[in-house]
Amino acid sequence: MTVTYTARVANARFGGFSQLLLLWRGSIYKLLWRELVCFLGLYMALSAAYRFVLTEGQKRYFEKLVIYCDQYASLIPVSFVLGFYVTLVVHRWWNQYLCMPLPDALMCVVAGTVHGRDERGRLYRRTLMRYAGLSAVLILRSVSTAVFKRFPTIDHVVEAGFMTREERKKFENLNSSYNKYWVPCVWFSNLAAQARREGRIRDNSALKLLLEELTVFRGKCGMLFHYDWISVPLVYTQVVTIAVYSYFLACLIGRQFLDPAQGYEGHNLDLCVPIFTLLQFFFYAGWLKVAEQLINPFGEDDDDFETNFLIDRNFQVSMLAVDEMYDDLAMLEKDLYWDATEARAPYTAATAFLRQQPSFQGSTFDITLAKEDMQFQRLDGVDGPLGEAHGDFLQRLLPVGAGMAAGGLLGRRLSLMRRKNSCVSETSTAASCTCAGAPDGAAPECGCGDPLLDSGLREPEPELPAGPELPVPGPAAEPFTTVPMPAPRGPAPPWLPSPIGEEEESLA
Known about the structure:
Number of helices: 18
Number of strands: 2
Largest sheet: 2 strands, antiparallel
Shape: flat
Strand content: under 5%
Structural class: mainly alpha
């Protein structure tokens, strides 16, 4: 049975894990004590022979052998090989548990998609889940010794109620030499299709959802079969085992205490029991025994999976979900916090202190800044609004060419962008756009009529260099006035934005 100690280490405290050292069942002591006693017995036998049996000449030769074994035992990479092997085995062990076929998701889909409170609807739901449980039993008895001892033959499966006698005939008459754990899943699919034809499953979407959950369930059964079939490569297991055993075989000789009177380096102390060698054996050999126990978790070791318990639990829960709990709902009532603006469950006296703790707002929530550090900073050398600063910054970025100097289209674009980006308040805009004082027939001084400047003030146009002049219509008192023509302009830079609008075309 699986050894669970989670509650003992729920809180980290002084000496918390030391209490686990006193446990026997599932412990490393129970797993390793035989190997440890064997190693210590062989070590003490060699030590006694060196001290009391060998002659002086034989002792000198044995001492040279001890020094040789101790020097070259470190060449065995036992830590690297063993560490990687145990990591692989533990990862494989947990993945095998994740592949255990649990029917929880499947039974919820069956209860929600296969309808009918009559006896036939109940028969459909129970049979579907029985087929799923039968598939799990067939695969588990193929990989687990504990389940095989419980169901050694198909007759035991029939007597246990997972399969009827008629189903057994169909199962045995199916001519296949391979493992037939998948047959109940096919029966499940056929029965679900029949329920769809009878209207028990009301649409194809519900049937699709049901078969998808069956596919997940069957995939887990298949993965258990493949984990049992494809083991960790035997050569790797052999390399690790040989490395550990050969290392400690060398330690039996190389870690012997020698006579201090001989003056060998590192042998100034003579003890009977090699304490640190025993600790090293405990760690390395224990590491190997952990891998040996976890490499196949479907046996009967202390930490192997409780497969028979899972069979019982899954079968009972699945039948309850699709039969007694089908269409079983409690009366709908308003919850306790129906009118509460801030729903919060109560705390007991043991947990009341948790109410005083503030909720987490983010890692930067408590950062404070000085008042002067929270002021926005404008661009260097600019005191005006941010829009004007943006225009000046753009002006500084543009190269000064012949077109700019001559007041070409590039300069007009910048002028338009600056006027569009200049911002004033609504009050100042209303005051500046009052054209009542303009004389009759004269053009207003402000830019209220400009569609591009309806939220800002028109800046005075910069004087353009003299050039060829063209006559344009003027006021009634002056039929024609002349305006200077822009000088020839060069090509615009490729990164310059596209024309700003119709106003730019009129200016061109």
